[in-house]
Amino acid sequence: MRTPTLESFLADVKDHVLTINLDQGVFRDITLKRPNSGSFYYNITTRPGHLMISGDMGTFVFKRLEDMFNFFRDESDSYQINTGYWEEKLEAGCKRGGVKEFSSDVAKDILLELLDEHLKGIDSGDYDRDKRDEREAIEEIENLISLAESDEYDFIAEIRNWDNESNNIEINDWWEWDFTEYGYHYIWCLYAIVHAIKLYDAAKEPSHG
Fold first, then answer.
1. Same domain, 14 and 97
2. pLDDT over threshold 80, residue 57
């Protein structure tokens, strides 16, 4: 799964214009949108203790401080986001593009680690003769990786129904594996919140009247 970077996010919003719809203390409503286009537009609304981002990239609601702009505000130019800690403050997320999503890259890393452990077991003589075929073990992992890249549900079904007796690789306690990572929409929206606050702060500076 492709993960948004700061550079890709800034490219998505480079033509966005800030519109302040409401600005009464911690009651705010702001929109960032490209003129004459709804692509990548988003809206941020705050009330005491809550912040909601909604728009083209999904909806997420956070709860923490009286003024949530203070919670997300980044004084640096690096756009620091904290995926894990901010997730703890999440009250609700959208159905499309949730906080965490299945990742074939994560699945691949887990499977390659499993293969590495298996091959080390072969070298040390831990396995019986019928479990010592390196080529078949490698092919089994390659097939699983290919399945993970093509269809998440077929991949999970294959892992769930794996037969240790007929395969070289043994798969045990697979349900403890986490094949997910933070989703594209979630990370994008975190960057979007930080970016919006920066533009809002700049617009509120005395030089802007």
1. yes
2. yes
